[in-house]
Write a structure and sequence with these properties.
The protein is about 70% helix and about 5% strand. The chain has helices spanning about 1-15, 15-40, 45-65, 70-95, 100-125, 135, 145-165, 165-175, 175-180, 185-210, 215-225, 230-255, 270-285, 295-325, 335-345, 350-360, 380-400, 410-415, 420-430; strands spanning about 255-260, 265, 335, 365, 375.
């Protein structure tokens, strides 16, 4: 704990550390905001292609000027990044090559050219090319106050353009056909988004590098998408996740860890930032309230318990129907746990839990005595009729319209009965001509409107008396 506090105090007091933290946090903010649009537009690989396309521009700018000043090198990176964007657009428009293949083509060709140029300038003794390789893997520790001002200016500009064109970008992302129909320049908006991504990639090359900059444009938006379905909230949350992950990663990289020989070793900033962003994604993947794995597992467990309870409720109705005289609607005499278990073939504990749930919902009651019976309440009888009606109408539909054999429809109807809405059931009943009986001759209960035809009940065939 003392080491952590000492490191935190050093980061606060060290100007260079503050520049690094501020610069990486701004890069994470810009990457998260712009990456949200790219991710929803299914252009996540665009950032990767543009990052690799920027590398030859760095080498060409150095060869042409002989200067290693950051603005000069970034201008070269921006030029080849824009060239890569235009190449992707030209390939997809003028050839039959798909967009993903065009992205992979531009990425590999431009990055290969960048590695070739970088190797060339490093092999020439007259050229002092030391430090250019940091644009591949990044070196956030070399950020200076001027670099921080440049990153802040670019981030502010990107944020302003995003805010001013938010509605247009949003519409082009979610419905480009409608956007084009109302006169919006969809292609221009796509190029605008690509250009902003180029700027974000270019200013992030020195800190994170061409290989890892894509993580700041993909991982924070992917994590934010798990928390919200609204684009405005997603961009804000993605920017916050990107800023925190980048700043935290930069801070963690300043902590020296013991090496193999006991000597302290500093961790590289770029990879630590990527791992921090990945940790945020993992946390979101697990803990997000609607799309997280934990929430999904809880929802599935609740659904299984609800379906089991509804199946037990339907079985109580089937037993009442089987015991009722011909032509007499099912009553509420009740069934014992043993009778239910004989039909449902469930462990007694699971069956008891399902009955306890139905009892809490006031759908069944339990009688007193040495052998208590489970009786449907009025509300339970209505709900059971709805389930049985859904099941039997769906069986009729499968046999008459889908041409499924009558002995193969039970399982599908068992699944469908829990999700069919009353409006759909009413329409289904009307399309089927309001049948009075299902494919096994069992009566179909009337709906709430009571419009289903009714005829004398036909005795169920053997083995169908209490079909679950």
């Amino acid at each position: 704990m003392a080491g952590v506090l000492e490191t935190a105090a050093r980061l606060v007091s060290d100007p260079n550390a503050r520049w690094v933290l501020g610069g990486t946090a701004l890069l994470g903010l810009a990457g998260g905001v712009l990456g949200s649009f790219a991710l929803l537009r299914r252009r996540a690989l665009l950032a990767d292609a543009l990052a690799h396309a920027a590398l030859p521009g760095v080498c060409l700018a150095f060869l042409g000027s002989g200067s290693k000043e950051l603005p000069v090198l970034l201008a070269g990176a921006a030029a080849t990044g824009v060239l890569g964007t235009l190449a992707i657009v030209a390939i997809t428009r003028s050839t039959r090559v798909k967009e993903d293949a065009a992205l992979a083509l531009v990425l590999s060709v431009f990055f290969g050219a960048g590695i070739l140029l970088l190797t060339f300038v490093q092999k020439v003794p007259a050229l002092d090319a030391s430090g250019l390789d940091r644009f591949i893997f990044g070196q956030a520790a070399t950020l200076l106050p001027g670099d921080l001002r440049l990153i802040a200016a670019v981030t502010a500009g990107l944020g302003a353009v995003t805010w001013l064109a938010f509605k247009e970008l949003k519409l082009s992302v979610f419905d480009p056909l409608y956007a084009a129909s109302i006169g919006l320049p969809v292609r221009g908006l796509e190029l605008l988004l690509a250009g902003m991504i180029v700027l974000a990639v270019v200013v992030g090359l020195q800190a994170v590098g061409a290989v890892l900059i894509v993580a700041l444009l993909v991982v924070p938006p992917a994590a934010a998408r798990l928390w919200t379905a609204r684009l405005g909230s997603m961009t804000v949350l993605a920017g916050a996740i990107g800023a925190v992950a980048a700043g935290l990663g930069a801070a963690l990289s300043a902590v020296q860890v013991p090496g193999p020989a006991g000597a302290p070793v500093a961790l590289p900033t770029g990879p630590v930032i990527v791992l921090a962003a990945a940790a945020a994604f993992v946390v979101s993947l697990l803990a997000a309230p609607h799309r997280g794995l934990v929430a999904a597992a809880i929802a599935r467990a609740r659904q299984r318990r609800r379906i089991l309870a509804e199946n037990v409720l339907k079985t109580l109705y089937n037993l009442e129907e089987w015991r009722a005289p011909r032509g007499v609607p099912p009553g509420r005499a009740g069934s014992t746990l043993a009778e239910l278990q004989a039909v449902r073939r469930l462990p007694a504990r699971r069956l008891a839990r399902a009955l306890a749930r139905l009892r809490r919902e006031r759908l069944v009651e339990r009688t007193a005595g040495t052998e208590p019976r489970w009786v449907l309440t009025e509300a339970g009888l209505r709900e059971a009729r709805r389930l049985v009606r859904s099941h039997r109408l769906w069986e009729v539909y499968l046999v008459e319209r889908a041409m499924v054999a009558p002995d193969h429809v039970h399982r599908d109807a068992e699944e469908a009965e829990h999700v069919l809405e009353p409006e759909l059931l009413a329409e289904l009943e009307q399309r089927l001509g309001r049948p009075a009986h299902d494919v096994h001759g069992r009566p179909i209960p009337a709906g709430e409107e009571g419009q289903a035809g009714r005829g004398p009940a036909v005795p169920p065939p053997p083995g169908e008396e209490a079909a679950p």
